[in-house]
Amino acid sequence: MKILFCSLFVVLSAGLIQAADPEDLNCDFEGGMDRWRGDGRLTTDESGNRVCVLKKTNDRKKEIAHKIELPGAVSFEIHYRVRAMPGSENVVLRRSVRNPRGAGFSGAELKPDGKWVSQKFNAKGEEGQRESDRIIAITFHEGEGEIQIDDIKVVVKK
């Protein structure tokens, strides 16, 4: 019984340690949208792959966001793939990384051709900044229609 308890403790502890790893954000949405917040919904694309969808039909922005914790001065990139579906108009994304001291933003326009495009954006903590939570977000900022997002990954630069 004691061995079983110790084994269970080790397995559960390893799972908790892994969950704190920023690369655990690797997200193909096959397992759902756990830990993501915002306006995203799941759908299945033409190849049977589950992806996150943001639909926008007015001026209200649509966003998905996720909180991660990283050491202060670390540089990292967020990699993902995205597409604007046919019939969408003037699609502009805003990608952001927010922390307790501020936020960094970048934009990207998408052609509404339904083709997947790989993208990434960069962030870096201030030198000496203590470990802190950061919120990464992808926002359907301008335009109307539907975008699909998949395969989000945090890559820490070494």
CATH superfamily (homologous) name: Galactose-binding domain-like
Low-confidence stretches: 1-20
The secondary-structure class comes to mainly beta
What is the fold named in CATH at topology level? Jelly Rolls
* Cα-based radius of gyration, to the nearest Å: 18 Å
Q: Outline, from the CA principal axes?
A: globular
* Count of spatially separate domains: 1
Span between termini? 43 Å
Mean pLDDT: 81
Beta percentage is over 45%
Q: What's the total number of strands?
A: 9
Largest sheet: 9 strands, antiparallel
**CATH class label:** Mainly Beta
In the CATH classification, which architecture applies? Sandwich
Range of helix content = 10-25%
Reading the helices and strands in chain order gives HEEEEEEEEE
- Count of individual helical segments: 1
In terms of topology, how is this protein built?
Elements: H1 2-20, E1 37-38, E2 41-44, E3 50-56, E4 62-70, E5 75-84, E6 89-99, E7 102-110, E8 117-124, E9 132-156
Describe the structure in your own words:
This protein is mainly beta and 158 residues long. The chain has one domain: Galactose-binding domain-like (Jelly Rolls), CATH 2.60.120. The protein has one helix and nine strands; from the N terminus they run H-E-E-E-E-E-E-E-E-E. It has one helix at residues 2-20, and strands at residues 37-38, 41-44, 50-56, 62-70, 75-84, 89-99, 102-110, 117-124, 132-156. Strands 1, 2, 3, 4, 5, 6, 7, 8 and 9 form a nine-stranded antiparallel β-sheet that branches. A hairpin with a 5-residue loop joins strand 2 (41-44) and strand 3. The relative contact order is 0.27.
